Structures are given as C-alpha cells and as structure tokens.
Amino acid sequence: MAYDDGNVFARILRGELPCKKVYESDFALAFHDINPQAPVHVLVIPKGRYVSMDDFSAQAGAAEQAGFLRAVGETARALGLVDGGYRILANHGRDAHQEVPHLHIHIFAGRPLGPMLDGGSLPPDGSFRRG
Ligand code: AMP
Question: Between the CA of residue 54 and those of 9, 18, 23, 94, 127, what are the distances in Å?
Fold first, then answer.
C-alpha cells in the first residue's frame, strides 16, 4: 500500500491538525488518542512516512527503528506508567482493523486491562474463519 500524505497523522505531523502532545523526539511524536479506550490511551507515531509496522520494519533505517522504539519507552516513562504497567499494540491491515494508514503504537494504561484479546467474537469451539 502506498503512503497517503493526506492521512490524519500526516496532517498532525505537518501541524495542520492539533494534538495533545505527550512526547517528541527527532524520530517520533506521541499524543493522546482522540477517542480513548482506557484512562490512558496514547499513540506514538514515527515522523517518517510509513503505512504500518510491516512497512516500517521492512523500510526504515536502523536509527529510525531504534529511535522509534526508544520513543515508545520514553513516552511510557514520561507518563509514569512503568510501575502500574501498560499495554502496547499496533494494528496492521484489515484483520487488525487498522484505521489510520500511518504506523502508530497504542499505549493503554490506567486500569487493569484484562485479557489480551477480546475472544467474544470467536465461535465457542475456538475455531475461526476469515469472513
Ligand atoms: P487504529 O485502529 O489502530 O488505526 O487506530 C487509530 C486510532 O487513531 C484510533 O484509536 C482513533 O481514535 C485515533 N485517532 C483518529 N484520529 C485522531 C486524531 N485526530 N487525534 C488523535 N487520535 C486520533
């Protein structure tokens, strides 16, 4: 998938849309999610033009990859989340329900987060099938 410069996170990076910034470095920007799913819900995005984790892990240089990962940890530390704990998540593509085509890592925290995935939509026998 080609990168779309009109996506909402590209617009935030260009300063065309506001965000509630938490952390910024040469490689990444972190800001509060507009529709939080937990008491703390922050997104960390690379400053480069990458559609998803697949694109980023294949195309980004070593400094960019290291800088981005460092920014995720720095953001969690800046928010004081280390002791209580937090969850990180990145959606890639259709099955993961990725909505914004610019790589973003979600950081969730601030309450017990429960099981890792919502299994409620799986059939009782645990099998699954692509729709
Ligand atoms: P995903 O489904 O992984 O692509 O997640 C996209 C996330 O971006 C959702 O949690 C949205 O609430 C969030 N989001 C969309 N637009 C904005 C925005 N302008 N500022 C902050 N978060 C946003």
Answer: 17, 27, 24, 13, 26
